[in-house]
Amino acid sequence: MNLDAAGDAAALRDAIVRKLTYDLGRSRSGARDRDWFLATALAVRDRVIDRWLDVTRATYEQGEKQVYYLSLEFLVGRLLRDSVSNLGLTETLKEALAPLGVDFDAVRLAESDAALGNGGLGRLAACFMESLASLNIPAFGYGIRYEHGLFRQILREGWQHEYPEDWLTFGNPWEFARPEIAHDIGFGGSVESVRVSDNEVRQVWHPAETVQAVAYDTPVVGWRGRHVNTLRLWSARALDPLKLEAFNFGDHVGALADRMRQEAISKVLYPSDETPAGQELRLRQEYFFTSAALQDLVRRHLRVYGDLRSLPERVAIQLNDTHPAIAIAELMRICVDLHGIPWDEAWAITQGSISYTNHTLLPEALESWAVPLMERLLPRHMQIIYLINAHHLDAVRAAHPGDVRLLASVSLIEEGHGRRVRMGHLAFVGSHKVNGVSALHSDLLKKTVFRDFHALAPDRIVNKTNGITFRRWLQQANPGLTGLLVDALGPRVLDDAEALDGLAPLAEDAGFRDRFAAVKLANKEALAALIRQQLDLRVDPHAMFDVQIKRIHEYKRQLLNILETVALYDAIRAQPHLNWVPRVKIFAGKAAASYHRAKLIIKLAHDVARVVNGDPTVRDLLKVAFLPNYNVSLAEMIVPAADLSEQISTAGMEASGTGNMKLALNGALTMGTLDGANVEIRERVGDPNIFIFGLTTEEVETRRRDGSHGAAAIQASPRLGEVLEAVESGVFSPDDRGRYRELMASIRGHDYFMVGADFDSYFEAQRRADTRWEDSAAWWRSAVLNTARVGWFSSDRTIAEYAEEIWRVPVRR
Ligand code: 26V
After folding, report:
1. How far is the CA of 635 from the centre of ligand 1 (A)?
2. How far apart are the first and last CA of the chain?
3. Is 94 a catalytic residue?
4. Assigned fold of 64-79+114-465+800-807
5. What is the pTM of this model?
6. According to the UniProt entry, which residues carry N6-(pyridoxal phosphate)lysine (predicted)?
């Protein structure tokens, strides 16, 4: 340690102790890990603030274009290690804490995991925020400060139960409450036409109800601490805290009822939309944060530039899926109703500023809102949407006279059983660019959901293949591998993901492969300890760790993986003398609370685990572990320890996937279908270093069109037949033999997700993986090549592409 470093550590130590004493009112002797975490975070935060204020001011002074990323979800996870690492303070902090008798890891783990998102979409937004800061792009993230993030998953005998998540209980040291930054958000009421001059009538919206959106700002530090952006999350605050008169009359609960209803807007991430009340709350959330964001950025723009007409040159507004698509109507309302800008000019401003990312083709996930609900909640926006639609359909009719099919297909309003506003269509017409999230997905957008739109506006759809931040998913999550990479390639690899390319020749170096494998083994030992602690299950770190971690959904096909596990279990028992490759099947993921079939799949994984793990004849050749409560922090443990990465969705259904990138980066080989970004991963790592199986998108489509059923696949595969019979007859559920009858019947029947159709191909691909594993030099050569060749999947590359093609802002590395 040099003297400067020692001085830095001492200064940081002083700062931490001062925070502990004067901000938290705690003594050193009485402080727990949580107190040390809070004190440390506050001290670290101080190191960010000067930069933050400087760069924010400079952005305005220099008239730089601002990016606004609107997202209903930001799945950030823990922030201490991220901030400290980007500031280059990791070693300093460890040295600062050590003499206090405080362990960095204990402090780090005391932070709650901010789960303000469901999965891929929310985590992507968090990776993007980090890359925006690291590329010095001035940006705001706008979202909701949910009091309760994604539910905690508790598994009791394999059944999922949901419990509220409480990340704010002990305070959030990263955020700054800004009670003075608040915008009024209206709901309901009526619209009045008011003549403002001889030739101008304006529409004035009189909302029945107004809720305030209050800002909470979190600084987002980029790599090496050069740039700091703001994540601004809105919290709902009632204008009237209580009805004093009612309260004084003794109606204490009634006096608070309005407030509770209004503040419910920012209570919970993704409230159940099974009930009409749940759907309404979701729409209120969407409008709430979108309107707050637009009011905020318009006010900032007007303060600096004085005129909304220059908005498209000065701001880029990115809609993360359709959740904020109401922005299009809201920005029109702000321009036309509040600033008197003529419609056509307002439309040019709106379209010039906004762009939209699509994240799914699943019909059930494409948002639409019932017209009566929109009319009641947002009457002026509904008028504006009708008007946008009229202009849009006029233009379509002029270009394609007489084509009524086309008009119905591209209308913003879906007719039929109850009229609905199609948010994807609104987002498409109101944006200058629309992007998909992988090459395959963008291509399918053009051919399926936006086929007619694509013909009308062939330059609108572009592809921006997703990426992940290597700072979190390599440098922080896997310090062992990072150390090895820096030794091999020099520190440049920390700044430039593409520098990983230089690793490829080392795949031929046996000594390097051994070091690579040793890092993996150490990570697996840590995960094995976690599995033992959580599940009371011993697993051998030398076995192949075969990992499927993601939301539980039929299209992601955890079921295919479980059925293959059963087949393998049967095969091992039938021929115990063969040289089986020892495997640990690791699962983690949450099912939506109302998604019964997904919950049943979790239960099946548990039932299979109980039988397999308890069967002495399989010895240590096969173990099954389902880790509860999957979140970002758990992913950070599992990803560095994975050997095999399961990316096995039904082709055409996974828009991109990002876990596939995290796992490949950390040296796992992918077992995957030709879906989402797997296709591009294969292009880069090379066919010999990935296990591809199953039907292609076209083949899936053909089979579905032909109405093919699972029965044919079962006929053709005795192995599959046996597995299905075992599961449906209750071999794994002796307490309730009929438990999986219906689930198995779905495979025998329509088999929409092609579990039966892909089964043999999957089983065979798994045996190819076994063969590779047996040749350890071959396995580790492939593993090294995976790490070497996925540099392109850095979210820095993705963000640089958005910056160049969609936002038109400079990137400064
Ligand atoms: C939403 C819903 C909601 C209703 C029930 C079923 C369902 C199924 C899927 C979704 C997904 C919504 C959008 C989403 O999260 N997409 C994910 O975005 C990731 C980032 O682009 C991408 O990597 C994933 O492939 C994609 O599923």
Report:
1. 18
2. 30
3. no
4. Rossmann fold (3.40.50)
5. 0.98
6. 662
